[in-house]
């Protein structure tokens, strides 16, 4: 008589791609991954280097066909600077980004676009203060951040230090950062001078505090 086999249910990992434009974001995402290995997420950070907005959107669409979740972290200062160089309004990168954001809301429900204005340093800043000032560039945001984190450096060594990496340095203030980030709402193209971070979408999407 053959022995019946019991079916063993093995949990399937959620496959998640996180797309970034620069090294700073990549270092931060890698620290999230390193410090949350128990999540069962197959996080695959991907970096886009000097690609047009059309190429970036095409890349995101391809990833959406492969991964359960796709998070695209956008530093808006880069997009805004590119938009200033475009002559025709309807061809500006910022206009295309807004159109693709609406497309994702309507049809690509596994894609989340995360905007930082001007850059991810704004996300780090709201770990320490509730603020929405306008920074004309990322350096200004970094200077303000150093008031709270004097040792801050935009280097891989600082971000990935095994004894005190960037994610662990700010873990205690992460709930405050999420709360304030949520309160800032959506990016308003008609009010581009307002600081903004939507990194709460990544933290909540990965269920880091559940």
Please summarize what this structure is:
The protein is an alpha/beta fold.
Can you walk me through this structure?
- With 210 residues, the protein is α/β, with parallel strands linked by helices.
- The chain has one domain: Rossmann fold (3-Layer(aba) Sandwich).
- Helix content is 42%, strand content 14%.
- The chain has 10 helices and 5 strands, in the order βαβαβααβαααααβα.
- Strand 1, helix 1 and strand 2 form a beta-alpha-beta unit.
- Helix 3 (76-84) crosses helix 4.
- The longest helix is centred in the N-terminal third of the chain and has 14 residues, at 53-66.
- It is globular.
- Mean pLDDT is 85; it is low at 1-11.
Order of strands, main sheet, comes to 2-1-3-4-5
The name CATH uses for the topology is: Rossmann fold
The DSSP helix count reads: 10
- The level of helicity is 40-55%
Strand content: 5-15%
* Coarse shape: globular
Biggest β-sheet, characterized? 5 strands, mixed
Poorly predicted segments = 1-11
Q: Which structural class fits the helix and strand makeup?
A: alpha/beta
Helix/strand order: EHEHEHHEHHHHHEH
| CATH C-level name | Alpha Beta
Distance between the termini: 47 Å
Please tell me the CATH architecture by its name: 3-Layer(aba) Sandwich
Number of domains: 1
Got a strand count?
5
Mean pLDDT comes to 85
Using the CA coordinates, give the radius of gyration. 19 Å
């Amino acid at each position: 008589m053959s022995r019946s086999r019991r079916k063993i249910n093995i949990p399937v990992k959620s496959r998640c791609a996180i797309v970034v434009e620069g090294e700073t974001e990549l270092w931060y995402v890698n620290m999230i991954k390193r410090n949350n290995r128990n999540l069962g997420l197959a996080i695959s950070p991907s970096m886009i280097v000097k690609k047009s907005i059309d190429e970036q959107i095409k890349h995101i669409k391809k990833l959406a066909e492969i991964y359960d979740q796709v998070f695209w972290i956008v530093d808006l200062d880069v997009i805004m600077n590119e938009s200033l160089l475009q002559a025709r309004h309807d061809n500006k990168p910022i206009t295309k980004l807004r159109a693709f954001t609406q497309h994702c809301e309507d049809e690509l429900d596994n894609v989340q676009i995360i905007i930082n204005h001007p850059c991810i340093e704004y996300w780090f800043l709201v770990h320490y203060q509730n603020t929405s000032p306008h920074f004309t560039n990322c350096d200004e945001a970094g200077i303000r951040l150093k008031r709270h984190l004097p040792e801050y450096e935009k280097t891989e060594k600082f971000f990935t230090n095994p004894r005190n990496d960037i994610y662990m340095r700010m873990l205690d203030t992460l709930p405050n950062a999420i709360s304030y980030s949520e309160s800032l709402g959506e990016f308003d193209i008609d009010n581009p001078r307002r600081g903004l971070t939507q990194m709460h979408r990544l933290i909540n999407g990965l269920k880091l505090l559940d």
